[in-house]
Design goal:
10 strands
Length: 300
């Protein structure tokens, strides 16, 4: 299986002060997709600059030609399917059909309370996620949608002319639990994992690989339940959250070793964070660019 290499460009820089250049450079380096987080703020970046995902991706679409673009990931925390669907159809049109929607259940961070609500319980997050994904799927594939659910409603919501990509832009569903994996199996064109968060602090890379192998097996089971071949569902690994942390970006050889171990698990796409100095995503930019340009040749 051939491997794709993608990147995440966090939206912390003004467009005129390095923002534009990063997206253009990602295309020059040959990355398959450049994603961005879809948060209102995020962890250690909360008290600094942080820009919106959809406007950033729209601007990126205007200054690139081939690079795919996407969120990693959007969640229901501060989104409604009707508004989001309209924005995604517009972005897909502006980009000429280059958008992938990474989508997840959301967490308990700043996004969870920014609109003034109490944080949702894990059960409610899962319930909302299921309804959110199903309604968004419908909104992106039908001209007019009316729906009344437990959490979301739509009344004659129009989405004409629909996506450039048919029947709609692809969903990359982030999930590790049973309900989320079933959503990925039913609605996803791809599945996203960051590994097992319980291993991040004290686990080993070997334990992480085993945990991810188990996730892949559960995804296969979820696909089998509905008669879908799991081989038709791309598997995406977002790096930086396994016990390896930033070590795969320390050298070309380190990355090739890391990527190869996960390619053997069936992953079609590895996503690395664009280097950010003085952060959890700090990395040598020259090594990062060398990995972008040379690693795939050693993995095929």
């Amino acid at each position: 299986m051939s491997l794709r290499l993608s990147t995440v460009i966090l939206p912390y820089r003004r467009w005129s002060e390095g923002g534009r250049q990063a997206w253009q450079r990602a295309e020059e380096l040959g990355f398959h997709t450049a994603y961005t987080y879809d948060h209102l703020s995020w962890r250690s970046f909360r008290d600094g600059p942080w820009f919106g995902a959809v406007p950033t991706l729209t601007a990126a679409a205007a200054v690139t030609d081939r690079l795919r673009l996407g969120t990693l990931v959007t969640s229901p925390n501060f989104r409604h399917p009707v508004n989001l669907g309209k924005e995604l159809i517009s972005l897909d049109d502006i980009s000429g059909g280059r958008v992938t929607l990474g989508i997840g259940a959301g967490g308990t961070g700043f996004d969870a309370t920014a609109l003034g609500q109490e944080p949702w319980t894990p059960r409610e997050r899962a319930d909302r996620f299921a309804e959110f994904v199903a309604l968004l799927d419908q909104l992106l594939t039908e001209d007019s949608v009316s729906y009344k659910g437990d959490f979301y409603s739509a009344h004659e919501a129009r989405n004409i002319p629909g996506c450039v990509q048919r029947p709609r832009l692809p969903f990359a569903v982030a999930a590790t639990g049973p309900r989320g994996l079933r959503l990925a199996a039913r609605h996803g064109q791809a599945w996203v994992t960051t590994g097992d968060p319980k291993l991040y602090e004290n686990g080993t890379p070997e334990q992480s690989v085993q945990a991810i192998r188990a996730q892949v097996g559960k995804l296969a089971d979820a696909c089998a339940e509905i008669g879908r071949d799991v081989a038709g569902l791309d598997k995406i690994l977002l790096t930086g959250f396994t016990p390896d942390r930033g070590r795969p970006l320390e050298s070309l050889d380190a990355f090739v070793d890391f990527a190869g171990r996960h390619q053997e698990l069936g992953f079609a796409e590895i996503v690395v964070h664009w280097p950010i100095p003085d952060s959890d995503f700090a990395a040598d930019e020259k090594v990062f660019e060398q990995i972008a340009m040379e690693a795939l040749a050693q993995l095929h």
